[in-house]
Amino acid sequence: MEVPYKTYLNENEVPTSWYNVRADMKKKPAPLLNASTGKPCTAADLEPVFCSDLVKQELDDTTAFIPMPRPVVDFYRMFRPSPLIRAYFLEKALGTPAKIFYKFEGNNTSGSHKLNSAIAQAYYAKAQGLKGVTTETGAGQWGTALSMACAFFGLDCRVFMVKCSYEQKPFRREVMRTYGADVTPSPSMTTQIGQKINQEHPGTTGSLGCAISEAVEAAVTTPGYRYVLGSVLNQVLLHQSIIGLEASIAFKKLGVKPDVIIGCAGGGSNLGGLISPFMGEKLRGEADYRFVAVEPASCPSLTRGRYAYDYCDTGRICPLAKMYTLGADYIPSASHAGGLRYHGMSPILSELYDQKLMEAVSVRQTDVFSAAQYFARTEGILPAPESSHAIRAAIDEAIKCREAGKSETILFGLTGTGYFDMTAYQSFNDHTMGDFIPTDEDLEKAFAKLPEIG
Amino acid sequence: MEVPYKTYLNENEVPTSWYNVRADMKKKPAPLLNASTGKPCTAADLEPVFCSDLVKQELDDTTAFIPMPRPVVDFYRMFRPSPLIRAYFLEKALGTPAKIFYKFEGNNTSGSHKLNSAIAQAYYAKAQGLKGVTTETGAGQWGTALSMACAFFGLDCRVFMVKCSYEQKPFRREVMRTYGADVTPSPSMTTQIGQKINQEHPGTTGSLGCAISEAVEAAVTTPGYRYVLGSVLNQVLLHQSIIGLEASIAFKKLGVKPDVIIGCAGGGSNLGGLISPFMGEKLRGEADYRFVAVEPASCPSLTRGRYAYDYCDTGRICPLAKMYTLGADYIPSASHAGGLRYHGMSPILSELYDQKLMEAVSVRQTDVFSAAQYFARTEGILPAPESSHAIRAAIDEAIKCREAGKSETILFGLTGTGYFDMTAYQSFNDHTMGDFIPTDEDLEKAFAKLPEIG
């Protein structure tokens, strides 16, 4: 059978449980620590911040399959299954014997895979009888996804949007407003931590770490609210496993096995979700795969960070996580476009990387956009800057295959579309885009502030 | 069998010929007229402007099925088949017994159905050995689609973009540039007609009619170039029949027959494509359907226009077409958002409407955006302003069904997404959006300039 351009699962083939890769890890990811006691977080520590069902998922490292609630399955049908696409045109343009597949998560209004976890988190908030949720957003994909999910369940949605994004991306903001969300530029004067940051750094344009602190404060000080997060956490990787589960079923239908699986990595939500079921096979000794995390050279947490306990937010009000980190104060250069700008990395992915079960590479921004443009012109999809990191690495693998005459099967995650990132594309088209790579001194300075815990 | 949320055809079920509805019309649409002789256009009249194969398709009103070239079938696989979606969530929100389906054409980077014809026209230009093509774009969807198609075949693409759009939508322009297109604001100083319009109307922000004149002039004066158009023409409706053909096959698979088929109508490309195969059944007496064209109250060519020969462009350098028209100088209010702003209507649709085989309604802009927001929040897709005209009419039909207790099956065309239309959404969110409806006096003034031909 010739592999079709696009493979969609039928509704009855779509998974109805998420897969929890921690269940198959012999050495588990390190637990979150309570910042005041230095001890592993209990459910009681986390429940003032997160919904109770999500706390359970966060702490559960033994249950392999967790059923999706029926309303989540129904909502997934709106925009899932996502297609597994054979990149015939890209292969031909590259003249490579490699077979390239990508799992495309961008065909929904949030423009990315973020909706997979947003709808789950909104559902649990609604089921708990909450009034609303708070969150932060940087590039805007997560905030958009959460706005859509909250509109669906009739929940209030308060988004703290990193100020420079808020100002540079009025259209992202407007999509969120169309879905009824309340969007505040961060740091704001509506929270104590925001006021403090504004006082200490007048004129600051904000960072993801600040916005997290503000969103958490707003959640714990507003009755009937909880905080939700779009990446990094175990629960988010759990929800995102739908990506890998669908891909795995589709490959089995096609009778194809990928050799290498590539994904961009910021906080790790997409990569963790994409690789989870394949990693499970590897952990159980059923199959072998190469896994490659691709991160920006301007924010290289896996390739140049430390594996240590660190704060998840600038305000240092969240629990501590053991992860590859550049330090909670690290902010990538303002010239860095799009997401993938978080200082740390999912504890699950950090542990898998530390166990050498996964590789990591970093790529420069201009190389990323050149891959993005090449991909847009050959495969027809204008990719998000984040996703284009994976495209760059996949193209590089395919070129290696051409040079070595090897016919490997490459799978990469195409997390989303770049329709709201045209300012970055413009700077690439105008040849004004630059590359920023932190020096060793920059990083040492950031590492010096790591907490002495764990 | 329960109808699934989304129905995709398999690759082997996808049509490989377009359907030409003119073949089944007893009374054919009136021919284009040569403006200087007043006689029906011959192939020789049209070939300096259009590719030869496209001229053949334009003039052929007897061949029912025209095979798609293989490279076009392949390209379609990149972004087609498009899903036929059962709007379960919308039905539930409306509390209607009606069954609502929509054919969603927005899941590609052009953001609309326009790519269906762009790739066909680019293919024929390439097959003829041309160097490039010219076109105009208003809202930007057509220009984006053509840029993508030209990038794929390695053709030069020169787009004249209506100046106010060029300035208000820098991101649309940037997408076209990313695909390698050359984008010029119209009226420009690069054509004689542009210079003339700029002299006569200093400071004008342009119109679709002006941009067409400039694009045609640029094509006929540049060796190796032809002009291509995204709507109105018979060839465009032919290519767009893929929408209706896929929908028709999907309905047969599901064992469902729509009662009423609704589409937005500007030049008629989407509506004509969507209804063609169903209209063919009606014309052959095999089945009956209601067809509803939905147009903006601010540009009401079918509901308030004259059925007469008129110029297709402001510069009056194109052939004359018999169509429902508001007059070649008619420009909808600047407050009108998005496309659907052409002064005329496809000659095929005009003739079908004149024969009372199709109905037409006009809807106000604020009612359109209120439907758009409602749809976004219930069905998860942020629709284009154009597409939202069809949503408005479909919701109105579904409410009528609820009031009458009738369980009709409604199909509407969701032509695209609104990601580049957030300025319009913002004015709706801010309650600053207005409605503009031309007075009878406005229209009489425009009708007075209709040519005395035909």
Keywords for this entry:
homodimer, 454 residues, alpha/beta, Rossmann fold, 2 domains, seven-stranded mixed β-sheet, four-stranded parallel β-sheet, globular
Q: Can you describe this structure?
A:
The structure is a homodimer. Chain A is α/β, with parallel strands linked by helices and about 450 residues long. In chain A, the strands form 4 sheets. Chain A has a 7-stranded mixed sheet with strand order 1-4-5-15-10-11-14, sandwiched between helices. A 4-stranded parallel sheet of chain A has the order 8-7-6-9, sandwiched between helices. The mean pLDDT of chain A is about 95. In chain A, a hairpin with an 8-residue loop joins β12 and β13. The first copy, chain A, is built from 18 helices and 15 strands. Chain A has 2 domains: about 5-10 and about 80-110 and about 235-445, Rossmann fold (3-Layer(aba) Sandwich), CATH 3.40.50.1100; about 15-65 and about 115-225, Rossmann fold. The interface of A and B includes residues 376, 382 and 423 of A.
Would you summarize the structure shown here?
The first copy, chain A, is α/β, with parallel strands linked by helices. Chain A has 18 helices and 15 strands.
Total separate domains of chain A = 2
The CATH class label of the largest domain in chain A is Alpha Beta
> Roughly what percent helix of chain A?
40-55%
CATH architecture of the largest domain in chain A: 3-Layer(aba) Sandwich
Poorly predicted tracts of residues of chain A? none
Which protein chains are joined by the largest interface, and how many residues does each one contribute?
Answer: A-B, 42 and 42 residues
From the 3D structure, determine the CATH topology of the largest domain in chain A. Rossmann fold
Shape of chain A: globular
Query: Whole-Å distance between the termini of chain A?
Result: 53 Å
Strand order across the biggest sheet of chain A? 1-4-5-15-10-11-14
What is the oligomeric state here?
homodimer
Number of DSSP-assigned strands of chain A: 15
How many DSSP helices of chain A? 18
The major beta sheet of chain A can be summarized as: 7 strands, mixed
Q: Please report which band the strand proportion of chain A falls in: under 5%, 5-15%, 15-25%, 25-35%, 35-45% or over 45%.
A: 15-25%
> Mind telling me the C-alpha Rg of chain A?
20 Å
Give the mean pLDDT of chain A.
95
Structural class of chain A: alpha/beta
